[in-house]
Structures are given as structure tokens and as C-alpha cells.
Design brief:
Blueprint: H1 2-8, H2 10-37, E1 43-44, H3 53-58, E2 65-72, E3 82-86, E4 92-93, E5 98-104, E6 110-112, H4 121-130, E7 134-141, E8 149-154, E9 157-159, E10 164-166, E11 170-176, E12 184-185, H5 194-203, E13 207-212, E14 223-228, E15 236-237, E16 242-248, H6 252-261
Parallel strand pairs: 2-5, 7-11, 13-16
Antiparallel strand pairs: 1-4, 3-5, 6-10, 8-9, 8-11, 12-15, 14-16
Length: 301
């Protein structure tokens, strides 16, 4: 009956064939899109940070596509390490997903040395970090201007504002001693990462001494758990005193525990090199904007 109907109406027969073919094409298209888009199949994005980019590319079972968007020089890290990633670790993504990467540069780019003269040590340390440079050693000399930067040097050579140097270069500072009888306190840097611990020590007009990383697997994430001389909040030491630091691997919970368990050793509250705690008042950094280093003023440089 149906065959007779289709034979008598060829137009209807062709329309049915066209509908069947169209339905088949649509079905195949949907199946293709589902396969290509990996619908229903998502994977947790690993944490690539601090791993070599080449290793990340080689170990890539889900065929992620890595796009480098920036490179940053870090003197404490080798080149080619992943610093940042987008999406962040733990994000559920599909295979063939683009992952945007920031890596460490193999060579430093050129940066400009900022004006440091007449700054306090604390301000100079911050200015160097903002410029992509590092503060090295503090050398204190006789000068009535306490904690004021007089000269800057790199690898034993004097350097001046406006000079270009490689990012991450270490700049040493010559600083006025002022009345050294007042000394300075060791800051509380327990639980801080390496960069912040160093900054805290230098900003207090002290020098970073020996740094111990025994058992540390990742220096960028290590935190300070011990220092010597120890923090007391009271005892003062001569400007430029070297403070030794010990670091360990730690999670956020470990850091909270390290800080909460820290106790001041009362035996460390003592006279340091003739400096008496009870005779001292808190002192702010002294700024001398009218001071111009470099002329013959009879001071010992």
C-alpha cells in the first residue's frame, strides 16, 4: 500500500529521502562535535609551578596546549621554570585546553638603577626590589646621618642612578652610621619566605649572614624557622650585624604552627656589644634631603 502510494507520488518519496538524509547528517554532526569537544570528559589541571617547562610539555597525556605569555628573570631560579599558570591548578578542564604560562627567563633583562642617595635603608631596599634588583650587603661608615644611603656599588664598583644593569643584580649600599650607640633590633621574620625574611633583616639595618637550606626541596616556598641572633623584641645590636637564617619546607598549617610555637629565649635578652636595652628609645629612620654625598666633608667613606 505504502509502496503504491510512493510510486504514485514520486515528489513525496523524494521528500522523505531528503528528510532521512538530513536527519542522518545532523546525527553525525552532533556525534562529531561531542567527540571533538570531549563533552563529559574533564581533567583536573596539575600544578606546573616550579617545574621545567620542557618536562611539563613532555608529560602531557591530555594534550594541553601551552602558551608562554611572559618571562621573568629570577636570580634564585634557573631559567625555564613555570612561575604562573592560567587556569590555576585544580581547575577542571578538557583535553587540548590552552594553558597560559609565565616562565623564568634564562638571562636578565636590563633595568635602570633608581636614585638611592639620601634614602633610608628601608626605602632603598624597597626601591631596589621595585626596579628588579636585589640589595646585597650594608656597609656602615662614620656619618652624622643615621641609616641614610651614601653610595651604591655593584661587584665592588660604584654605580649611580640611571645606569643600566641586569635584572636581579646585587647592589651593595654604603650607609651612614650616625650614633651607633642606639643600635637596632632584630625583626621578627619567623614564618616568612626567603625574600621577605631577607627584606626584613636588611630593612632593619642588619646584614643577612649565613642561610641554611638543609632538606629544603623548593627554596621559593621555604620559610624561616630560626635566626641568630634571635628575635627578642628588646635586645639591640650594632648596625650591620650579620643575622644567620634557617629555612624549612612548610605548608600554611606548618607556618601557623611555627609562629604559634615560637617563644622568646630570655637568655638572649642581654647587653649586646655595650648596648643597654633599658637606655634606648625607639628611633625612626632619619631623612636628609639636603645632603649631597660625594663632596669632601672630611668623613670616613
Amino acid at each position: 500500500m505504502k509502496k503504491d502510494f510512493l510510486d504514485k507520488h514520486p515528489l513525496a518519496k523524494h521528500l522523505l529521502y531528503m528528510l532521512a538524509v538530513s536527519f542522518g547528517i545532523l546525527l553525525l554532526a552532533f556525534l562529531f562535535i561531542k567527540i571533538v569537544a570531549r563533552q563529559g570528559k574533564e581533567y583536573e589541571l596539575p600544578d606546573f609551578r616550579d617545574l621545567p617547562l620542557e618536562q611539563v610539555k613532555d608529560d602531557n597525556p591530555h594534550h594541553f596546549k601551552y602558551v608562554i605569555i611572559d618571562s621573568i628573570y629570577d636570580a634564585d631560579k634557573e631559567g625555564g621554570l613555570v612561575l604562573q599558570q592560567d587556569p590555576i591548578p585544580g581547575t577542571m578542564v578538557k583535553s587540548h585546553r590552552k594553558v597560559y604560562i609565565v616562565v623564568t627567563a634564562f638571562a636578565p633583562s636590563d633595568v635602570v638603577l633608581p636614585e638611592l642617595s639620601n634614602m633610608s635603608v628601608r626605602s632603598a631596599v624597597s626601591a631596589l626590589e621595585a626596579a628588579g634588583l636585589r640589595c646585597g650587603k650594608l656597609r656602615f661608615v662614620d656619618s652624622p646621618y643615621r641609616n641614610v644611603v651614601l653610595e651604591s656599588s655593584c661587584k665592588g664598583k660604584l654605580v649611580y642612578a640611571g645606569e643600566t644593569m641586569g635584572a636581579g643584580a646585587v647592589v651593595d649600599l654604603t650607609v651612614g652610621r650616625g650614633d651607633n650607640a642606639k643600635g637596632t633590633r632584630v625583626p621578627f621574620v619567623i614564618g616568612q619566605v626567603v625574600s621577605k625574611a631577607r627584606r626584613g633583616i636588611l630593612s632593619a639595618s642588619l646584614n643577612v649572614g649565613e642561610e641554611h637550606f638543609e632538606g629544603v626541596s623548593n627554596r621559593s616556598k621555604a620559610v624561616c624557622y630560626r635566626l641568630s641572633p634571635d628575635y627578642t623584641g628588646v635586645t639591640r645590636y650594632p648596625l650591620g650585624t650579620y643575622v644567620n637564617l634557617w629555612y624549612c619546607d612548610a605548608t600554611e598549617a606548618d607556618i601557623e604552627r611555627i609562629i604559634s610555637n615560637f617563644e622568646v629565649d630570655s637568655s638572649q635578652i642581654f647587653e649586646a656589644d655595650g648596648i643597654w636595652d633599658d637606655e634606648l628609645d625607639e628611633e625612626e629612620d632619619i631623612y636628609t634631603p639636603d645632603y649631597e654625598p660625594g663632596f669632601d666633608d672630611g668623613w670616613d667613606w
